[in-house]
Amino acid sequence: MDKDCIENHRRYLERVALDKSYGYDVEKERSFILEQARPLEGRILEAGTGKGHFALALAKESRPFVTFDISADEQHYAKLNLEYYGLDKLIDFRIENAEHTSFPEGCFDIIFSVNLIHHLENPYRAVEELVRILSPQGKLVVADFTEKGFQIMDKIHALNGNTHDRGKVTLSDIEVYLMNRGFLVRNSYSEIQHVLVARRSVA
Length: 203
Description:
7 helices
């Protein structure tokens, strides 16, 4: 295993420990999201890889999937993270823009979007694209922070003099948008995460 992989894993563990010290147990929250999405069947996509925290949880399910991010740098760190655990071969890493991907219509049975919505300039456009590539019987799993989760993120980012930007569109707004598109939406909450599981009402 090369030095970059080991060093990246060290930074990953440091961040996980920091989050946990502020009350955000990353592994617990990722497990919560996965539980809301079960059963994990068919072709799976993760929209917004980031540094690979959710990709790692999903890969531990031993299911192959596709994950994309707009940032090549983020994908690089995510690959290193999964490589450390020997799980990188399960994953098809892509560079894509969530607003207009290269995937054909209706090709994924489960699409995850975890803590991505608040980062996007045009979240409705991104959700519309995810709807386009979701299969007729598929489910869209969209998660973002609760108010407590956002407060924790604000504190952690402030440690380095940074701010954690929140978009104007909330997950509740996305719920209304999906319902207006004919989706049935189920809400689940932990202390840190709000999770929507959406399916088309008529398949």
